[in-house]
Amino acid sequence: MAAKILDGKAIAQKVRDEVREGVARFAAAHGRPPGLDVVLVSDDPASVTYTRSKEKASNEVGMRGRLLTLPATTTEGELLARVAELNADDAVDGILVQLPLPGHIREQRVLDAIAFAKDVDGLHPVNAGLLAMGRPGAIAPCTPRGCMRLLAEAGVEIAGARAVVVGRSDLVGRPMAALLLAQHATVSIAHTRTRDLRALCREADILVVAAGAPGLIRGDWIKEGAAVIDVGLTRNEAGKLVGDVDFEAARERAAWITPVPGGVGPMTIASLLETTLRAAEARVAAR
Ligand code: GUN
Q1: Fold classified for 142-265
Q2: pTM score
């Protein structure tokens, strides 16, 4: 059986269209559009490109998107002062500080300083804690939310399914496991110390891989009929973007699979826009 392809580009466009409508409704009701501020403290070309595309995407759906670029020499104190300004600005609904930060800045200090109601990355301990507890109102990180939307669009049954998440990062693995658990999957989290990863993966009805290790997951590790979500995105020696799953072999066994590129990648920014709209709605509802 050749797997059906989960077309992240098409689904991301659908999400953006939904967000555009929601933004117009929000702006009509509240006299201003939702505001997203992306803070970049780096001149790394990949981060510059990535943050510019976040700014552009937010403006394209009608938000007030702004990219604040600070020099790599910015001190932790200066960055914390900018975050405090954004926290206090009522026109700002979402704050995203692009990672990684320069080595002289303590990332955790900065992420913890973002008002959690504006933490559209879902990296504040309050949001991570609410999500881990399965409580409503948590802001979950964008990439795992995008993965959940892909599964929903495919009509994959999550309740009762065996799900395996490979990777335990704050941005993907842990929140992904929490979102699957909240929808009643039986979830295992695998990582670099996991014994017999192959045997674990072969049990997975839903396999989400976010290890950043190209080719880690071989075709014969896939359970027949599984849904395979590949979050990995690495540029190989030939300059080609590749995922963590051996796509050609895996597609022979899976029922659904995401390509790389064009699977999870496009969903991340679309999910960020959706999260920002929701954060704006939640802030005005809390007044
Ligand atoms: N760097 C790469 N991906 C991300 C992300 O999703 N959020 C932040 N803040 N930084 C990143």
Answers
A1: Rossmann fold (3.40.50)
A2: 0.97
